[in-house]
Write a structure and sequence with these properties.
11 strands, 4-stranded mixed β-sheet, Rossmann fold, 16 helices, 7-stranded parallel β-sheet, alpha/beta, about 425 residues, Dihydrodipicolinate Reductase, domain 2
């Protein structure tokens, strides 16, 4: 057995800073407060409900994850947020129409206490929204300084011992990495010069990493997936991870596609379409924001199926993804998939999926897990890209030169093996030869 890694205790308050106080963030905060009161359960949260096998199967050691590694307790969480609208978390949750008003009323005081700070906003990056609760500054560098001031005020007011920041805001317009993103020095010069290549999400990430706060990117935005942010995270020894919470249709793809490949069933086409009516759907109705999301969603199958290794099975398949804004549906997203496959002797078959899901209900437990796991990573001294948290993302951030791992089951194995490694336990390979020696 290897030596366990030293992990600082999780004493004190963990402040969770949320960029965007819309459907996902308000559902997350309300859910945590309801769970703390014993009204509801944290369904979908690996940190709260998951277990982890240790040692051989015959040892029958399978503790809950929350007892195996020292995670922050739900009672120790405090919440802060930014948004382009001034609604507090209670008003935002009512507007989002995810949770029943009667349920929200049970935690109304706690929700009303979360009042967002004015946000950094640029309509060139999110063209379908227009909020008035926004910061003004002489430069993007000045705006980043304002964000840092918000953070420090929150740290003092909440007596937070530690902080994490999670982007739960909108998908920004598609952006290709360029010279301003190539080094930290160039990035900071671009901040001062108001370079249009610096997106609002990057200001939040810069503020967090500059203060030694872990940053989680829940959208497909470029944000921390640039050399400048990697340099800053490494310099300040801060964990980062992303991109794009894996919830609905892509979650289904990362469950089903590994099964098709495992059984060597071929694929000729995968047609996906979505309808949703929340703020996310409104933003994605604009082509440049959809382009960012499309890049995230399309990459999944190529990596899982490895068509370069299996050209006769996956060399020529067609993958189409559409998203349609349909206001009557609200947060209750519906995803349709038509999957054309073929089997023995090339005979065709079809699979059809109609997933009527609730976007924020699926995303809220991911926000909780990522807050707790990135805080754990920080207390363990882990820094830079946290690939072991790929389990939670559509487009996992990874080291240069590597391909991302999209297979949900490999991702879960990686996550649990990381926890075993941190605690000095044997890694699970599932070889099992010792049972038959």
């Amino acid at each position: 057995m290897q030596k366990a890694a030293p992990i600082e205790t999780a004493h004190g308050t963990l402040g969770v800073l949320l960029v965007g106080l819309g459907a996902v963030s308000s559902t997350f905060i309300a859910g945590v407060e309801l769970i703390k009161k014993g009204i509801g359960k944290p369904i979908g949260s690996l940190t709260q409900l998951g277990a982890i096998r240790l040692g051989k199967r015959t040892e029958k050691r399978t503790p809950p994850i929350r007892e195996f590694v020292p995670l922050a307790a739900l009672d120790d969480l405090a919440f802060g947020a930014w948004d382009i609208f001034a609604d507090d978390a209670y008003q935002a949750a009512l507007r989002a129409r995810v949770l029943d008003p009667a349920m929200l009323d049970l935690v109304r005081p706690e929700l009303e206490a979360v009042r967002p700070w004015p946000a950094v906003f640029d309509p060139e990056y999110v063209k379908r929204l227009n909020g008035s609760h926004v910061k003004q500054g002489a430069s993007k560098f000045a705006l980043a300084q304002q964000l840092m001031a918000d953070i420090e005020k929150f740290r003092a007011a909440s007596s937070a011992a530690r902080l994490v920041m999670i982007w739960c805001g909108s998908t920004e317009s598609f952006l290709v990495p360029g010279a301003p993103h190539s080094t930290l020095a160039r990035f900071e010069a671009a901040l001062r010069a108001n370079d249009p290549a610096i997106a609002p999400s990057m200001l939040y990430a810069y503020a967090a990493l500059s203060l030694g706060i872990p940053f989680v990117n829940g959208a497909p935005n470029l944000t921390v997936d640039i050399p400048a942010m990697l340099e800053l995270a490494e310099r300040n020894r801060v964990p980062i991870c992303g991109k794009d919470f894996k919830t609905g249709q892509t979650l289904m793809k990362t469950i089903l596609a590994p099964g098709l490949k495992a059984r060597m069933l071929g694929l000729t086409g995968w047609f996906s379409t979505n309808i949703l009516g929340n703020r996310d759907g409104e933003v994605l109705d604009e082509p440049s924001s959809f382009k960012t999301k499309e890049e995230s969603k399309l990459s999944v199958l190529d990596v899982i199926l490895q068509k370069e290794l299996y050209p006769e099975l996956y060399g020529e398949y067609i993958h189409k993804v559409n998203i349609h804004y349909y206001p009557p549906r609200g947060d209750n997203k519906e995803g349709w998939d038509n999957i054309d496959i073929f089997g023995w002797l090339g005979y065709p078959m079809q699979i059809k999926i109609n997933f009527l899901c609730r976007d924020s209900i699926l995303a809220a437990p991911l926000v909780l897990d990522l807050a707790l796991f990135t805080d754990l990573a920080q207390r363990t001294g882990m820094k830079g890209v946290q690939e072991w948290l790929s389990f939670y993302f559509k487009s996992p951030q990874h080291a240069p030169g590597l391909y991302p791992e999209h297979d949900l089951f490999i991702q879960l194995t990686k996550l649990k093996n990381t926890l075993r490694f941190l605690r000095g336990e044997e890694l699970i390979t599932h070889l099992g030869n010792e049972y038959y020696d």
